[in-house]
Each structure stands twice: as C-alpha cells, then as structure tokens.
User: Fold DUF6011 domain-containing protein from Streptomyces poriferorum.
Amino acid sequence: MEPSEPAPDAEPLPGTAAATGRRPVRCRMCGRPLTGTASRRTGLGPACDAKLHPAPPDIRTRRHEVEQDALPGT
Ligand SMILES: [Zn+2]
Assistant:
C-alpha cells in the first residue's frame, strides 16, 4: 500500500506562498492576500488603495467632453 500523499502534479493555489515563492502579504486594511507587486509594496489592495488615495480628476476628461461630437449619419 502506498502512503497517502498529495498528487505530485498538484499546482499551488495562486497567491499562496508556494506559488509566489515569497511570504504572503496581506492588505493592512482588509487583510486580503495581495498578489500584485504594487499592492505588496504599499501593503494595500487595489480597492483599499483607491479608498485612501482617490484618483484626482483627470484633465483629459474635460477635453474628451469638448471633443465629444455626434456621430455622422445619425
Ligand atoms: Zn484591502
């Protein structure tokens, strides 16, 4: 009888230490595991980072509104 071992081809779950080869980093706001490089560096998930640092209004947005012409032929 063979000992019950996990399948040799079992892949590590994404975001785990086995998959990344590094210590898991968790968001200091909500505690969710971080997978992105930027998120790991800041210690915040994308959602929580957006809450703390809301993106400033983009200047291009205003220009886009000005240049928003009606489609021809409609
Ligand atoms: Zn978070």
